Amino acid sequence: METPSGPTPPVRRSLSTEAVHAGREDLAELGLHAPPLDLSTTYPSYDSRAEAARIDDFATTGARPEGPPVYARLDNPTTARFETALARLEGTESAVAFASGMAALTACLMVRNSMGLRHVVAVRPLYGCSDHLLTAGLLGNEVTWVDPAGIADAIRPDTGLVLVETPANPTLAELDLAAVAHSCGAVPLLADNTFATPVLQRPAEQGARIVLHSATKYLGGHGDVLGGVVACDEEFARKLRQVRFATGGVLHPLAGYLLLRGLSTLPVRVRAASATAAELARRLADDPRVTRVRYPKLGGAMVAFETAGDPHEVIAGVRLITPAVSLGSVDTLIQHPASISHRIVDADDRHASGVSDRLLRMSVGLEDADDLWADLDQALDRAMRDGGPVSGTAGAAGGAAGRKQGVAG
Ligand SMILES: *Cc1c(COP(=O)(O)O)cnc(C)c1O
Fold this sequence. Notes:
Blueprint: H1 15-21, H2 27-30, H3 48-61, H4 77-90, E1 94-98, H5 101-113, E2 119-122, H6 128-135, E3 142-145, H7 151-154, E4 159-165, H8 177-184, E5 189-192, H9 197-200, E6 210-214, E7 228-232, H10 234-247, H11 253-285, E8 290-294, E9 302-307, H12 311-317, E10 322-323, E11 333-335, H13 347-352, E12 359-363, H14 369-387
The structure holds pyridoxal-5'-phosphate.
Organism: Streptomyces xinghaiensis
GO cellular component, one term: cytoplasm
EC number: 4.4.1.2
């Protein structure tokens, strides 16, 4: 009987196959079927000379330490399985996992900032907190916001990253990644692939050097794990590991376990939810109570739409659909970006990037399409009957005024 010879299989397999096997190649040899969950924070070693050498090696190279782990902030074998699997799905050499999507983005910025490259070129809209992290200058970045066509001209000698999302949160605006990657020249393109997932789009194949995920969303897929991950070449991964070790935004091993488990059903979940989302987008587009529908050409399980009635009444009216921020779960969620996911972005910037006060963002899950439509139908009726139209879209006008500030995703 043949056993796998190492972590990298000799042939490139299809995504569905990789989703259930990547990161698990050694299990049969270990006599296991389910991956082991290692919750250790520290590891015994009677050989402190060897441990010193492993620490030196990590400090100089940032490569994953060989041999037994030293300390959980440096490396964890359960999390490493998830990293191996995600890198395989995204078609990159490596991946580095973090405590959340925002911790992952922070680490990417810190790698470049530490090289004196603090200027970022970015295309709006981005996820609200990503926009905020850049705009507020929390990490000392300076940002130039551009249209995709303006990327090349905005690049300066101190530009460290170009940052884009496609489809973007929350408008689902799409851009041509290959064209954008070309405009970046030698500056690394960071593509946030949270919405598309590697099932629909692999940005590294189109020239993005850095692919970021809020693993909290589709990769986990069940609304019970917070995590982030960066898929990239091993050179950048080494710098990310060093930043992660020094700043501590590590993924908990239980989260790593759950994310690896989530990856195994990712292709099935994304394809099934996308088919339902496409059907709901068609019905919304034909509905007179809906003034605008955004559904990506790429497909996917996210639908954004604007209502003739008050969007707050749609949120108040849903019964099967969960009125909650976040996305990518097995159940359908709906939220009002101007009130929640993008509340932290200045209202003028929000409006200029297409996030109107009427926009609702729906993450379609695995329920039956007709059941979801019945729920939307009665909530849209309520919005027309009880809410009345939102008056105006600028500044304090409209339904978002006076709502509680929120910053979640
Ligand atoms: C949610 C989200 C993030 C942030 O991820 P967290 O896991 O919530 O920190 C980043 N980018 C996009 C596109 C998101 O939707």
